[in-house]
Design a protein that fits this description.
- With 82 residues, the protein is of the alpha+beta class.
- The chain is built from 2 helices and 4 strands; from the N terminus they run βαβββα.
- The protein has a 4-stranded antiparallel β-sheet with strand order 1-4-3-2.
- β2 and β3 form a beta hairpin.
- α1 crosses α2.
- It starts with 5 loop residues before the first strand and ends with a helix.
């Protein structure tokens, strides 16, 4: 299914940026990717929109057809920084 359906995830808390930096090729340093910034990128070869909503909070959107793979990539990255 390549419709325009999106799946959204929110990641927050201490260490969330470290987890995202493992799979996101853009610079997420707070001085470069400020609150309310949004970017289109790829995470683990999946098209992604990333929005920074607070100091340690990000919303991620990807195609609903790859939701399981997207969640797995994010969970693996979180696990690897703990």
């Amino acid at each position: 299914d390549q419709s325009h359906n999106w799946v959204g995830l929110e990641i927050s808390g201490c260490g969330c940026r470290s987890a995202l930096e493992r799979i996101c090729p853009i610079d997420l340093h707070p001085a470069r990717f400020t609150i309310n910034m949004v970017a289109r990128t790829q995470m683990e070869h999946l098209g992604t929109l990333i929005l920074r909503t607070d100091h340690e909070t990000y919303r991620l959107f990807s195609a609903s057809s790859s939701a399981q793979s997207f969640l797995h990539a994010l969970e693996t990255s979180i696990h690897n920084v703990q």
